[in-house]
Amino acid sequence: MKHQRSNEKEPAFSPGQSEIAAWLKRVKFKKRLFGGVDEADVWRKIEELNALYEKLLLLERSRQDAGEADE
After folding, report:
1. pTM for this one?
2. Are 20 and 53 in contact (CB under 8 A)?
């Protein structure tokens, strides 16, 4: 059970980070009858997660570029 102290705050996430956090909370892996999880499914989930991170990276880079243009 996870306990949180009253003086600790949840970290502030950007919209892209919140999307990744939500994805991580809901991701489920297909089970195999013997041997744990389906390896192909794990690789598909890793690809999905990578795509989310790439999207976030592009957003952050464009945000930084826009900030540099304002200077």
Report:
1. 0.67
2. yes
